[in-house]
Amino acid sequence: MKLFKKFILFVVAFALIVPGVSVHAQDKKTVMTTFYPVYYLASRIGGEAVNVEMLLESGQDAHSYESTAKDAVAVQEADLFIYQDDEMEFFVSDLLSIVDQEATQVLESTEGIELLSGDHNHEEEEHEEGHEEEHDHEHDHEHEEGHSHEFDPHTWLDPNFYSQQAENVKNALIELDPANEATYTENAAKLSEELTALNEDFNVGLADLKNRTIVVQHEAFGYLAHAYDLEQLAISGLANNAEPSAKQLAEMTNVVNERNIQVIYVDPTTSTTISETVSQATGAELRPLRTLEFITEEEIEQGEDYFSIMRENLAQLTK
């Protein structure tokens, strides 16, 4: 492992000193983001004043991603690196251990925001005061079978939390590039207005929903459930690649039958095999509900974005 880190450091240093390799021959600052939710914030707030890039390609899972030497070079060459948080992109701690953070500014986008518990987030419990400090880079994520979540990282599915992240991104951009403070402030204010309107749409749209229980494959909707008084029942865990045991599948099948659940929500951009199993056993309909962890390149080309997909989620929930 030490040899691998030395190799990465050599590659990063080489990329920074060899003529023609650095990207800083231009005036615009470069912002590297991890995946779509933070990429969208940086793009909207940065506008034309910065170059915004995304480390993960469409379809790559931020939970299970493993960083490479190429990633380390890309982050080191950027002026600012933005990621969701330590509960989402587990690979970031290793990545940052070999990146010179004096040369590249780093922002954890949920910094200072009190997150929901990662354990049974459908119970809609918030952490007690004081846990905010624990959220800062002090988690031991590893356990015997992989990663565990102390906090739910899917904040962007609540427009109010996402707005708080937007404020963090705005402040980081201003710190990086004070000359364009007016641009970042104006763009962030407009985004905040749109998020407030989206929140109101959800409040109105879901107000009269009679069945307030949503069964989902991926336990990503805790913030949405918490914000709009819904109950989330998840077949698998907070990581969208989590595989439930046969016992968990049987228990979920029983719950769906006992509660006469008619719909199971799945993200069509990921594997739906698990939900199909429960659907076949219960007769429940599969219906799309996007986690927005990524959107496809084709969707981006068609003009889809965070807001259009969130409103489609609302339409699915109110059918």
TrEMBL record:
TM spans (from-to): none
Keywords, comma-separated and alphabetical: Signal
Alphabetized InterPro entries for the sequence: AdhesinB, Bact_metal-bind_prot9, ZnuA-like
Positions of the UniProt region annotated as Disordered: 117-154
Pfam families: ZnuA
Signal peptide stretch: 1-25
GO biological process: cell adhesion; metal ion transport
Molecular-function GO terms, alphabetical: metal ion binding
Protein name per Swiss-Prot or TrEMBL: Zinc ABC transporter substrate-binding protein
Organismal lineage: Bacteria, Bacillati, Bacillota, Bacilli, Lactobacillales
